[in-house]
UniProtKB/TrEMBL annotation:
<feature type="transmembrane region" description="Helical">
    <location>
        <begin position="194"/>
        <end position="217"/>
    </location>
</feature>
<dbReference type="Pfam" id="PF12832">
    <property type="entry name" value="MFS_1_like"/>
</dbReference>
<feature type="transmembrane region" description="Helical">
    <location>
        <begin position="161"/>
        <end position="182"/>
    </location>
</feature>
<dbReference type="InterPro" id="IPR036259">
    <property type="entry name" value="MFS_trans_sf"/>
</dbReference>
<protein>
    <recommendedName>
        <fullName>Major facilitator superfamily associated domain-containing protein</fullName>
    </recommendedName>
</protein>
<keyword id="KW-1133">Transmembrane helix</keyword>
<comment type="similarity">
    <text>Belongs to the major facilitator superfamily. MFSD6 family.</text>
</comment>
<feature type="transmembrane region" description="Helical">
    <location>
        <begin position="224"/>
        <end position="244"/>
    </location>
</feature>
<feature type="transmembrane region" description="Helical">
    <location>
        <begin position="93"/>
        <end position="112"/>
    </location>
</feature>
<feature type="domain" description="Major facilitator superfamily associated">
    <location>
        <begin position="50"/>
        <end position="298"/>
    </location>
</feature>
<dbReference type="InterPro" id="IPR051717">
    <property type="entry name" value="MFS_MFSD6"/>
</dbReference>
<keyword id="KW-0472">Membrane</keyword>
<dbReference type="InterPro" id="IPR024989">
    <property type="entry name" value="MFS_assoc_dom"/>
</dbReference>
<feature type="transmembrane region" description="Helical">
    <location>
        <begin position="118"/>
        <end position="140"/>
    </location>
</feature>
<dbReference type="GO" id="GO:0016020">
    <property type="term" value="C:membrane"/>
</dbReference>
<keyword id="KW-0812">Transmembrane</keyword>
<feature type="transmembrane region" description="Helical">
    <location>
        <begin position="52"/>
        <end position="72"/>
    </location>
</feature>
Length: 298
């Protein structure tokens, strides 16, 4: 009996201590645990973020300034080459030369840095160098039309000019697809940033520079309309090649066609604008054509 009583007493003591321990356990989950337990993340549209609208605003301002720069620089170049008896394409090829040299450098910097800060710094340095060079140029001042709207209206009523502008617009659409989606597509299928820079190098050195050098001769042989038509055919070939692309490095052979889609096309458009413009309306006529390409098309 004594041993049985002792076992019962010991059992009661253990039960009591267990109850006390359970009572002393502090709950680790807060009373209001709605913030502690994550719910399913809400998908926020880009249009609801201020970062998107700030980026869109800055991009719009930058592209507006860039397109204006292209128009004015091409007009000044056309006036200068006419004065000195040079060819537009052989001057414009230096832009392709700079593009081809700097693009792989920018891609390599982006591969070895955490963000795109290095590319922004490189752009700022090159922009300052370009500005200093522009300040030293002896530019030819073009004539200005006294009846600008009337002269531009006469050009816009030309069926030939409107047909050419339509071809320029279609080329702009194709250019926009390449500029905004080719690099993205290459990164999706495993391409590096260095490869994206080398794409620009092949475009410039293999395609654009040789074609720009001989652009004057080609335009005289086949004409402005045939050049822009040939450019559209080459875009079709490039898009067909991209559709079957699995190895990102195989994009490089197709980029040789950039010599026609840009190296021949760009001098043809600039020269046609100069050819079709009334005296004193060269810059405005350039703007009309390149707005169809850079603005409406892209």
């Amino acid at each position: 009996m004594d041993s049985s009583t002792e076992r019962d007493s010991s059992s009661d003591t253990m039960d009591t201590s267990a109850i006390i321990e359970c009572q002393n356990i502090e709950c680790q989950i807060p009373r209001d645990n709605r913030k502690a337990i994550p719910y399913e993340k809400k998908i926020v549209s880009d249009f609801e973020t201020y970062q998107f609208w700030v980026y869109a605003l800055l991009t719009t301002i930058a592209m507006g300034c860039t397109n204006g720069l292209f128009t004015l620089s091409d007009t000044a170049c056309c006036e200068s080459v006419e004065k000195f008896g040079a060819q537009f394409g052989r001057q414009r090829l230096y832009g392709a030369l700079g593009w081809g040299l700097i693009s792989p450098i920018g891609g390599l910097l982006n591969d070895y840095t955490d963000d795109f800060t290095a590319s922004w710094i490189l752009m700022a340095v090159m922009s300052i160098a370009s500005l200093l060079n522009i300040l030293r140029l002896d530019l030819v001042k073009p004539q200005f039309s006294k009846n600008l709207m009337k002269d531009i209206g006469a050009v816009l009523r030309s069926k030939e000019f409107l047909a050419f502008k339509l071809c320029v617009l279609l080329n702009g659409v194709c250019t926009g697809v390449l500029w905004y989606y080719l690099v993205w597509y290459l990164t999706v299928i495993g391409g590096s940033r260095l490869l994206c820079g080398l794409v620009q190098t092949v475009q410039c050195f293999v395609g654009e520079i040789p074609c720009m050098f001989f652009s004057g001769w080609v335009i005289r042989k086949i004409g402005y309309f045939n050049v822009v038509t040939l450019s559209l055919m080459c875009y079709f070939t490039r898009f067909f090649w991209y559709s079957y692309l699995t190895n990102p490095w195989l994009v490089l052979p197709a980029e040789c066609l950039s010599g026609i889609t840009y190296g021949l096309f760009y001098p043809a458009v600039a020269s046609y604008a100069k050819f079709s413009a009334k005296p004193g309306t060269e810059a405005t006529t350039q703007a009309v054509l390149f707005t169809a390409h850079e603005g409406l098309g892209k």
